[in-house]
Amino acid sequence: MMIRLFLAAVLAASIPAVDLAAQAPAAAPAGPVRRTPDGKPDLNGFFQADAGGANYGLEKHPAVDLTPPGRGVIIDPPDGKLPIQAWAKAEQASRDRPERGYDDPTAHCFVAGVPRSMYVPAPFHILQTSDAVVFLHERMAWRTVALNRREHLPDTMRLWQGDSIGRWEGDTLVVETRNFNGKNWLNEVGEVVSHAEQVVERFTPVNADRITYQATVTDLNVYTRPWTIEMPLNRQPGEMLEVACLEDNQDLQHLKDVRDEYRRQNK
Amino acid sequence: MKPALILAALLSFAVPAIAHHSFSAEFDINKPVKVTGKLSSMRWSNPHAWIYIDVETDGKIVTWAFETATANALFRRGWRKEDLEPGTVVTAEGWHARNGTPTANTSSITLPDGRRLFAGAAPNEGGPPR
Questions:
Q1: Would you say residue B123 has pLDDT above 50?
Q2: Among all residues of chain B, which has the CA nearest to that of A138?
Q3: Mean pLDDT of all residues in A130-147
């Protein structure tokens, strides 16, 4: 017990005071990638994004109150800014207020959608076969990417995680996802997507333990043009653990209290 | 294994925590909290683990609930259920919940011998800035 406490204390003391989230990810040396017997890149394994605080804002931003900073993960447009329409910017600003914290679907333990599922601060396991790539997210969500299907589901079918179809372009897995229900937030500060969201993700392994992840989001209800984020996915030791999010979600009542009190004071 | 190697191994195993909601929405950075009391219980739960501390104020015992990272994150950082026994006197620091209940998000837990155990999520893990 004492050894563990010592190690925990050492580990705690070792956490630097600088904002790690705002730092660029460590460079990854190019190297041989893992391959399946059929010669395709082997993406199987336990990964987590070096997300740079994307779950608290996709643009570069400082810490504000208790919201962590972010290094900025937008690579297109080149200025790193979301090409957001005015109404959506106003909606995002509203969602970022304490009384709207209750409205974030993930506060209710709903699944995070795409691309947010990839950069919430939680690991995920990739299972790959010749027919499908499956993302098992530790937050007890999953997404199946069909490799053996070309047609998306009917437009009337609307899903939290959307409908994903993938294909290989050389060593890059390209995944197109649509059929979203439009209820997701892109992060805790409420960046916006609608039911018109379509995402093209590109998974390119750069060595045995790192995948470069890009996601291009097109949603002309919300943005004036498509935009793209990029971050590394790094292989992790260990394995997924259970997260029974609904079991002890005491935060939800607190967030509801904040919302209800705001409503009482602003009738 | 040398301590430096153990530390390096632990750091490499430090998979970030899960923040599943906005800390800024639930807790107030302008209301820091520091209490000392006896640890009454700990809930190893997700999406966040909770440490309960009995604090005597004006002759009355108030049980404070301190939110930490996920149980999974604490496990990966090397914490185990038996590491914090009920009755241990601890000092907890954090930020008060906006709803006014004796609830806080944890920035640190200090043991009787002065060691400070990190309990919240690190900035890069979805926790508040420090």
A1: no
A2: B18
A3: 95
d(CA A104, CA A109): 9
Ranking A104-108, A195-199, A263-267, B108-112 by mean pLDDT, the lowest is: B108-112
Interatomic CA distance for residues A102 and A105, integer angstroms: 8
Sequence-ordered list of residues with C-beta below 8 angstroms from that of B82, at least 6 positions apart, any chain: A1
CA angle A256, A189, A225 (to 5 degrees): 135
Closest listed residue to residue A193, CA positions, set A53, A91, A78: A91
**pLDDT recorded at residue A4:** 53
Q: What angle do CA B50, B51, B56 make, to 5 degrees?
A: 135
Distances (CA, A) of A197 to A109, A119, A135, A205, B93: 21, 17, 20, 26, 42
Q: What is the pLDDT of residues A53-107, one digit of tens each?
A: 999 999 999 998 888 899 999 999 999 999 999 999 999 999 999 999 999 999 9
Q: In terms of residues, how long is chain B?
A: 130
Cα–Cα distance between A258 and A61 in angstroms, integer? 25
State the smallest CA–CA distance between residue B36 and chain A in angstroms.
Answer: 19
Looking at the partner chain, which of B7, B72, B130 has a beta carbon nearest the beta carbon of A241?
A: B72
Burial classification of residue B124, based on how many CB atoms lie within 10 Å of its CB (0-12 exposed, 13-18 middle, 19 or more buried): buried
Tokens of B5: 């190697």
Mean pLDDT on A261-265: 94
Q: A10-14, B34-38, B54-58, B76-80 — which is least confidently predicted?
A: A10-14
Please report, as a single letter, which amino acid is at residue B93: E
Chain B 48-87, CB below 8 Å of chain A: which residues?
Answer: 48, 50, 65, 67, 70, 72, 75-80, 82-83
Per CB-CB distance under 8 Å, the chain B contacts of A139 are 18, 20
Nearest CA in chain A to B7: A11
As a whole number of angstroms, the distance between CA A30 and CA A25 comes to 15
Give yes or no for residue A24 having a pLDDT over 90: no
CA A10 to chain CA centroid, Å, is 30
Instruction: Give the Cα-Cα-Cα angle A235, A239, A242 (nearest 5 degrees).
Output: 130
Residue A137 token pair = 């997210």
Here the ipTM equals: 0.79
Buried b (16+ CB within 10 A) or exposed e, A47-69: bbbbbbbbbbbbbbbebebbbbb
Asked if residues A14 and A174 have their Cβ atoms less than 8 Å apart, the reply is: no
